Amino acid sequence: WGEVLKDVPNRGGLTDSPDQDFRAVKEPEFDQLVPDWLVDEQLAEFVPGSMVQLEQAGQPLYGVVRWRGSMVGDNGVGIGSDTGELVGVELEEEIAGGGAGTLKGRNFFNCGEGKGVFVPVTQVRPDPRFTESLVNSHTGSAGNGDNGSGDADAAQDFGGLECPPVPGVCPPWPAVESVKEIAGRNKGIQGHQNSCYLDATLFSMFTFSSVFDSLLYRPRNKDDIPKYEEVQRVLRDEIVNPLRKRLFVRADRVMSLRTLLDSLSNVSGLMDQEKDPEEFLNSLLNQVLKASPYLELTSGQTSHTYQLFVEKDPSIKIPTVQELFEQSFLTSGIKFKKVPPILILQMPRFGTQFKMYERIVPSLLLDITDVIEGMPRQCISCGQLATIECLKCYGDREQGLQSTAFCSICYPRLHHNHEIRGNHLPTRLYGPQGRKKDDKLTRVNMQLVAVICIETSHYVSFTRCGDNIRAPWAFFDSMADRKGEQNGYNIPELIPVPEVDYILSDAGAQQLRNNPGIALTEHARRLVADSYICIYQSEEVRMYN
Fold first, then answer.
1. pTM score
2. Which letter, b or e, does each residue of 383-410 get, where b requires 16 or more Cβ atoms within 10 Å of its Cβ?
3. Distance between CA 371 and CA 349 in Å, rounded?
């Protein structure tokens, strides 16, 4: 645990809250980057979600547009350019004089304190890290399996590393004893033009796990789109197989998939705009590949993902995913109709701004027994087969949904004439047909395989490096570094994170929950503070032995 903790300096900052006199704070000053006569043309490019660059005394700062509008005439004061056009930007880093999305007492967007600024449109330009040309890669072999001069040009554009297609069947990268064996730069999927949402998701789904492999091999049927096999081939031969064989995928290969998805689904902007993983998953799984839903709910709904909806419990400072999962199902009153092979859980947060809890501990094993319809359950009191469920008893004995199951003998004993429980209304539990009386009662667990995180619109992932619960964890960033500016390229990186192994252990999770304000290393902090999606797989699902 000593490696996880570190001293963190107390960081103050200026605020632009409505209670503060904004004139008393020296506003940050930025360089003009665009001539005034280009304002109208430039402004059309910047919408909420656009990645931009600002400069202070020639030093670049990067961020994302969160608001665009005018303050001319507001309270008789004009702010910004002569046209009054402003953009509100959430910066990647805090700066002196930065705020939190409030200007002149009015809130226009929300962001971390010290990261929000409002500037004229002449002081921003497209982020050069994401605007390099794709002409060579698009006119070359990307997407067609060619290894000719076009592919050589694309390789040069993106750092010179070869990335030929790999046809056939490739199992996931085998489990490693130490992440150091595979860590380093130019490992993983190379990012390009706001692709981090897709890079982090694909890396999490396919590198070390086979649970999504049916997407790669299901034969086309009469209900599939005409380009089904082309999308499947690009995904399998140009992305997944090279990733599993060489641990590297060049950006132009991924752009081939983005181009197809952008043209074949109603999710627009997949080639260059800032998107979320669920938008990519909707495009790939639901609309293009038409994968069978992973989840079937008693409400009659089916889905590939599940959003956790909970009410914040003030008594819980740092919840686990297990607790949030059970609270969400308790509140909704629905259950799974069968054990899902995959569980893609969206954390209770909305976009980059609102988080229900500041820190969440991912559960390494997720017990889903109590939310499966017809699954035999144990009586919380005697351990025998439960026949009654009482949701009002949730949380008794500090055992979550397990505390809601009773046998026909223990329920009346624990409820009748009880001051509180006497008013509870139970429901009947029905087990599966054909179950024998002496059949063993077992719990159904799912294993955590990846956590996708977001911070200031940039997605990264923590991934288990092997298809077993004891495998070590790694941190992946498709844009960890960059070579060159406008005509440069991004450098992906995979690094070991032993502190995450500990955080995910029972001892580490408990120590963190007992000390909610404890300082963490950067990667440990990102895991618990920035988690966006947790991917779980059934312990029974294995495609390769």
1. 0.74
2. eebbbbbbbebbbbeeebbbbbbbbeeb
3. 22
Question: Phi first, then psi: what are they for 109, rounded to 5°?
Answer: -160, 170
Backbone angles phi and psi of 11, in degrees to 5: -105, 115
Of 196, 390, 393, 410, which residue is the catalytic one? 196
Instruction: Count how many Cα atoms sit within 13 Å of the Cα of residue 311 in the half-sphere of its side chain.
Output: 3
Which residue, among 342, 113, 335, has the nearest Cα to 215 in the 3D structure? Answer: 342
Q: What pLDDT score was predicted for residue 542?
A: 65
Q: Are 86 and 101 in contact (CB under 8 A)?
A: no
163 near 253, Cβ under 8 Å? yes
CB 298 within 8 A of CB 375: no
Residue 172: both structure tokens together: 């996931």
SS3 503: helix
Q: Using DSSP, state whether 231 is helix, strand or coil.
A: helix
Which of these is catalytic: 304, 415, 458, 523?
458
Both tokens assigned to 123: 């002081």
465 is a catalytic site residue: no
Identify residue 225 by its one-letter amino acid code. Answer: I
In 3D space, the residue among 282, 252, 62 whose CA is nearest the CA of residue 138 turns out to be 252
> pLDDT tens digit string along 458-490?
999 999 999 889 999 999 999 998 887 666 889
DSSP assignment of 196-221 equals HHHHHHHHHHHSS--TTTHHHHPPP-
Residue appearing with tokens 């059970």: 326
**pLDDT by residue (tens digit) across 488-500?**
889 999 999 999 9
Contact 237, 257 (CB under 8 A): no
Query: Using CA atoms, how far apart are residues 441 and 421, in angstroms rounded to an integer?
Result: 26
Segments in the chain below pLDDT 70: 1-26, 35-45, 71-84, 129-156, 350-353, 397-398, 417, 419, 422, 433-434, 485-487, 541-545
C-alpha span between 528 and 500 (Å, rounded): 10
CB 100 within 8 A of CB 113: yes
What is the rounded CA–CA span in Å between residue 21 and residue 36?
30
Verify whether residue 382 is a known catalytic residue. no
